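Design job #97: recover the sequence.
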């Protein structure tokens, strides 16, 4: 998720097209792109507001990479200069020493297309951006960073299930992850209706799939669940109202509401979610859609902690692994962002 080319007021006023990640280098075990996996070398820059960045936050937690890969959390309210570190002392990231994420992009290349987006992996010694390829980043955390995984880390991208996982993720990306944006940033009625219909058509199909199985693919949590979760957890808070995806609320869909609560209550998922950051980002940054910048009070978050009963479907959340421990104190979500 990046800053709009013409600033925040352009959201909803020009055709929406998600740009491909311009920086697609990979950090790998063999370092074939020049970036070897190495503890302490890289910094993951995220926004808790952004669903694309939140995938990486969850993966890092589940795999136990906190000590090996440090994390910077940007202010949910970006300005026209990009994501900024105004949550930190002196408005600077304490490790990279920069005020704006764009500074790491500029060190890598000038006049790059596509804007400044999170998640971003930055090389700490040089201060240069390595990658902003949100689609590949989490797959690499699961498969290339294995030497640094915690004991008991789950296999989020099991080899035997990759074809199924890839297929599910492709449909979810097109219709749900990106579909809500195409609806929310539509500039015409027909464009909006087509995108919104696609969102709910896919949610209906996912409802059928998840009615009889606890997780999307196989009987454990995989990358596919992470990618669906980061959209569903934002659905009632921002996509239903702000993006006009309002055929029904997620809380009105018995299956999907139970599924997303099951994941939310699983260590590594809900403990990364900051509803305060999510709501303030969408309602205050997208001034082309919400010119007053008023952030709604609802929805009530208490329901996220209610019993979901999905364990009756079986499944083993972490497979042969174990849940992650609690998040480090400096990474805990403040009380105002939690139920």
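Job complete. Output follows.
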């Amino acid at each position: 998720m990046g800053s709009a080319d013409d600033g925040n007021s352009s959201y909803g006023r020009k055709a929406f097209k998600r740009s491909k990640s311009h920086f697609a280098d990979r950090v790998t075990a063999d370092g074939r792109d020049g970036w070897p996996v190495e503890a302490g070398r890289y910094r993951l820059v995220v926004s808790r507001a952004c669903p694309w960045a939140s995938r990486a936050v969850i993966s890092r937690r589940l795999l136990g990479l906190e000590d090996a890969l440090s994390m910077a959390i940007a202010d949910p309210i970006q300005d026209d200069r990009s994501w900024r570190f105004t949550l930190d002392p002196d408005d600077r990231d304490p490790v990279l020493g920069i005020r704006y994420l764009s500074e790491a992009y500029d060190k890598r290349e000038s006049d790059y297309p596509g804007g400044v987006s999170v998640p971003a992996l930055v090389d700490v010694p040089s201060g240069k951006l390595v990658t902003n390829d949100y689609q590949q980043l989490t797959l690499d955390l699961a498969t290339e960073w294995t030497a640094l995984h915690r004991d008991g880390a789950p296999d989020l991208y099991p080899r035997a299930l990759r074809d199924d996982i890839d297929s599910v993720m492709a449909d979810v990306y097109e219709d749900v992850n990106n579909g809500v944006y195409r609806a929310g940033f539509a500039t015409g009625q027909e464009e909006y209706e087509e995108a919104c219909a696609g969102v709910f058509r896919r949610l209906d199909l996912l409802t059928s799939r998840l009615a009889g199985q606890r997780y999307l693919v196989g009987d454990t949590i995989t990358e596919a669940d992470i990618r669906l979760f980061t959209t569903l957890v934002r659905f009632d808070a921002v996509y239903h109202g702000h993006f006009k995806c309002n055929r029904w609320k997620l809380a009105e869909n018995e299956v999907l509401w139970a599924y997303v609560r099951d994941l939310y209550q699983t260590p590594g998922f809900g403990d990364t979610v900051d509803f305060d950051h999510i709501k303030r980002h969408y309602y205050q940054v997208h001034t082309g859609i919400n010119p007053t910048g008023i952030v709604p009070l609802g929805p009530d978050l208490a329901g996220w902690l209610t019993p979901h009963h999905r364990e009756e479907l079986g499944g083993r959340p972490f497979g042969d692994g174990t849940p992650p421990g609690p998040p480090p104190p400096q990474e805990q979500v403040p009380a105002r962002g939690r139920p």
